[in-house]
Specification:
Elements (H helix, E strand, L loop, with lengths): L11 E7 L3 E10 L3 E11 L3 E2 L2 E2 L2 H19 L5 E6 L5 E10 L7 H13 L6 E13 L2 E4 L9 E12 H13 L3 E7 H9 L2 H6 L1 E6 L4 E7 L2 E8 L3 H12 L3 H11 L12 E4 L9 E4 H25 L9 E5 L8 H9 L2 E4 L18 H11 L24 H14 L1
Parallel strand pairs: 1-6, 6-11, 12-17, 17-18
Antiparallel strand pairs: 1-2, 2-3, 4-5, 7-10, 8-9, 8-10, 12-13, 13-14, 15-16
């Protein structure tokens, strides 16, 4: 009865997907040896965000509180910290190669820490915060492709680093909004990275794939190759822009345009679109209900989606990743529900395209298995996945140029272990 081994209690975690259209809160519990099981979920209306950034603290706070309270009631627990997504127009990738000489004959942990510190201190950008720091490749005396350099002999140690960064200002507002809800940030994950963890297969990540998350205020992309995240990008356009285009083009209120998009929206023309009339409520009370051909609705939607995909294609091409990213594209987010978007993306991007559905979390309902919940479920999976990160915890929002205290020996060890097991 006494003195026996203590059974570790399964860990319970809470994640928040704060979007421009809705707030999703999921609470999951670790299933030892299996993964994570969903035990509670809640949703709130996001009225205080625009383009992924907080523009109304009070409205954003109401949406977050509502989602968290509903999830807590469903799970029967009280949460104090949350894992949060980040989807901002300022998201960007930066690659850096750093080399340093070391005195001892064999590479030790202290040498790895020194070269990683050198790479982080080289980011002389106090206006941005590091969200992810991922080692892509280690080199010893210019021999690259090394999984674990510790114990190897040489005189020079190098690493290729991938940093994902975002502007400190919007991040501070997001953190402040969460703190107003009496919550602390446990970790942050950029939205396309989280969505990728939810919907991509290991073969896709290994052979090369681009995930595009079609959100309401932000369209973001993550490129994977050799089972590693190699690039992130974001555009400040999304489903809300399509709705605005429809409202202007059809001379109808925004709410009516959103409803028209959901019911009649498509990226592909139909045979009878010119003859099918769509009812459009008037903007002013004295005006009458009018009708427009469905072909006009399709033209407006197709133009915006085509432009967005072309912008992403050009930015990926400019980053030199068009071929490196492979022949596969996966679409997630609310925009993935648009009729015909897979066919249009195939045409614009010239690659194989599929719609991504979340998997790998026990207890997901049919609703939560849809593409617009990929970010939330990916955040939940990410808590229990060992990813090749060398920084942990919430981002540094102090504005200091150099930060070394975030990354720990455990994070460094997990990073090297991950590289050793996956390459």
């Amino acid at each position: 009865m006494f003195g026996g081994p203590t059974k570790r209690q399964p860990e319970t975690v809470c994640v928040l997907d704060i979007g421009s259209n809705k707030v999703v809160c999921l609470i999951g519990r670790e299933e030892p040896g299996l993964g994570v099981r969903l035990i509670g979920s809640g949703f709130g209306v996001s009225a205080g965000l625009k383009g992924g950034a907080v523009v109304d603290l009070e409205a954003a706070e109401i949406g977050i509180r509502s989602a968290v309270e509903k999830a807590e009631r469903a799970a029967g627990v009280t949460v104090q910290d949350v894992c949060v997504n980040v989807a901002l127009r300022s998201l960007r990738s930066k690659h850096m190669t750093v080399q340093t000489e070391f005195a001892s004959g064999a590479v030790a942990d202290r040498d790895l820490k020194r070269v990683l510190n050198s790479s982080m201190s080289g980011l002389d950008q106090a206006e941005n915060a590091i969200l992810h720091a991922i080692p892509l490749n280690w080199q010893v005396d210019d021999e690259d492709g090394i999984r674990d350099p510790r114990g190897m002999y040489g005189q020079k140690l190098g690493v290729d680093m991938h940093f994902i960064m975002a502007g400190i200002g919007p991040l501070r507002n997001l953190a402040h909004c969460i703190e107003r809800c009496h919550l602390t940030i446990r970790s942050v994950t950029v939205s396309p990275y989280a969505a990728a963890l939810s919907v991509l297969t290991e073969d896709e990540r290994d052979l090369g794939v681009t995930l595009i998350d079609l959100g309401s205020g932000i369209t973001s992309a993550a490129v994977f190759r050799d089972n590693t995240l190699v690039h992130v990008d974001a555009l400040s356009v999304g489903g809300r822009n399509i709705t605005s285009d429809l409202a202007r083009g059809l001379s109808t209120p925004f709410e009516a345009a959103e409803r028209i998009k959901m019911i009649y929206g498509s990226c592909l023309h139909g045979a009878n679109d010119d003859h099918h009339q769509v009812p459009c409520p008037p903007i002013a009370a004295q005006d009458e209900l009018h009708h427009e051909p469905r072909s006009l609705v399709t033209n407006i939607i197709r133009s915006r989606v085509e432009e967005t995909l072309e912008l992403l294609r050009e930015r990926i091409h400019k980053a030199g990743l068009e071929t490196y990213s492979g022949r596969q594209v996966v679409l997630t987010g609310g925009g993935a529900h648009l009729n015909g978007i897979r066919e249009l993306a195939t045409h614009v991007l010239g690659k194989r395209v599929r719609i991504g559905h979340p998997h790998g979390v026990f207890g997901l309902s049919e609703e939560l298995s849809q593409p617009d919940f990929a970010v939330a479920t990916g955040l939940l999976k990410n808590v229990f996945d060992d990813r090749p990160e060398v920084v942990t915890g919430p981002p540094d929002l102090s504005g200091r140029r150099i930060r070394t205290q975030r990354y720990t020996g455990n994070a460094l060890g997990r990073s090297v272990q991950w590289l050793r097991e996956n390459f």
